[in-house]
Amino acid sequence: METGVRLSQSLNVGFIGLGIMGKPMARNLLNAGFEVAVWNRTASRMDELVNEGARASGSPQEAAQGKDIVITIVTDSPDVEAVVLGEQGIIHGAKPGAVVVDMSTISPEVTRSIAERLKERGIDMLDAPVSGGDKGAIEGTLSIMVGGEESVFERAMPVFRAMGKTITHVGPNGAGQTVKLCNQITGALNILAVSEAVVFAAKSGVDLSKMLQAIGGGAASSWMVQNLGPRMVKGDFEPGFMVKLQQKDLRLALEAARDMHLPLPAASLVHQLFAAVEAEGMGDKGTQALVTALERLGNVEARQEN
Amino acid sequence: METGVRLSQSLNVGFIGLGIMGKPMARNLLNAGFEVAVWNRTASRMDELVNEGARASGSPQEAAQGKDIVITIVTDSPDVEAVVLGEQGIIHGAKPGAVVVDMSTISPEVTRSIAERLKERGIDMLDAPVSGGDKGAIEGTLSIMVGGEESVFERAMPVFRAMGKTITHVGPNGAGQTVKLCNQITGALNILAVSEAVVFAAKSGVDLSKMLQAIGGGAASSWMVQNLGPRMVKGDFEPGFMVKLQQKDLRLALEAARDMHLPLPAASLVHQLFAAVEAEGMGDKGTQALVTALERLGNVEARQEN
Lengths: 306, 306
Prior knowledge:
Two copies of one chain form a homodimer.
Chain A (H helix, E strand, L loop, with lengths): L11 E5 L5 H10 L3 E5 L7 H5 L3 E2 L3 H5 L4 E4 L4 H9 L13 E4 L5 H12 L4 E4 L2 E2 L1 H7 L2 E6 L2 H14 E8 L3 H30 L3 H8 L7 H5 L1 H6 L8 H17 L5 H15 L10 H9 L8
Parallel strand pairs in A: 1-2, 1-4, 2-3, 4-5, 5-6, 8-9
Antiparallel strand pairs in A: 7-8
């Protein structure tokens, strides 16, 4: 990729939330030639991007003024409500016809209610949560699951292409969040699957690496077996994806399920087991630390140095 | 592959158990040039292979006489005990220095006790359970997880190569069965992961195929998402791998875990949920039918015709 030469883009963009994910995503927009105004609660996190050509804003409202697309990527439902609907929120700055693209992972229900509030002002919304981690954010290879009207989705495609690789329109507002929660349920249970296999092998006295290798190529294979299995047995609990964020997403899924009267027995179980990991002060560790809860339950150490 | 020309092999083989897996495996041995004597409880299942060059035997004992390798692939621990140690069992026919290769999925503990009994007569044993289903058995691409002495493993390699592709020596006697049970725990929980995602999406009103497509490429991906997910949402419950056999394997895993005082909360949960599938008379269906238990719990239909 050539640096120094930027194609100018016709859409201008506001970008709210420069965390581990947001910062590299905003950078990819700058590198793709978009004009980007940024805002972050901790203002100092804006400095680096300002040096790279972004404009700093004093509020979400200011970052939204005159923009075609306003992106938010913050932690939880109340954070999105605050930056979109709160005092000095996006809704007070964005022009009619603008698109608010929320790339946080939040409640599908809250998403639909925010979309309605924006619609009253003539502002469109897409929910567009991502998966792929900070690595995907840096490399611009995120998977983006998008809910909202098809025509609005098409208008936002140029910004999605600058940040992601697999971009799927999955349904109306809220559907992006629902699919993201499906992703989080499935991923968390796949980690639990590996964790139980690992402690079973360890307590049986079997070589853990050979076990992971043997099961990683067939019908039991998963991204988690292949990527987190080896870290688990080495005792490498660096995140990856933090336990406390996995817990937030499982909470969102279980709350949505509860509201629909849908029992999710395994998602509920893994949420409890991750609570045991948090109880040991490991909420900032990677999700592969789930194995430690199973190790304590079974009084077994599942480690292997090779 | 040329037909009509068979390389002759120096090892001669006894083969006990011509079920869905055993029959094509024995055929691959014949096609690779091994002399094969077969035995099956239902004698008529031997006819086809006899026409292809196998020799029919009147008992496991007779099938084992004078053989270098005697393979067993039957259903459960008591079946292996019967054909190896019972009246007219292999132990009464096999010569000292022969190798009994049990390719069934059975208890690691029972495996170790059979191996000891054989060892007293100078007969070696390998536990060598397989994964890859009838497709892998037919195509000779099975994964084979082998427990036993390294030198014995080497002696049996020519027969493994005729039946499988990924052949891994994982440890001493019983280790092959342990790793196979790790595979079954992980696979079953990966199916449960997909099932909960599918009912969550269905109850939320989201397109199921788009959801599976969106989650199938990232950190939540698994063989089960990609292969059984689409069958689940089509309501295609043909086996694949039957619920009742999955239940047998989970029972073996949970019994072994119980004997070791190892809690496996998720494996236990999925065993209960598969019991609900059996309660509906679907034990002969494929494991993807697990979704029906979650559907009943949540009073939701997770089907989509496209």
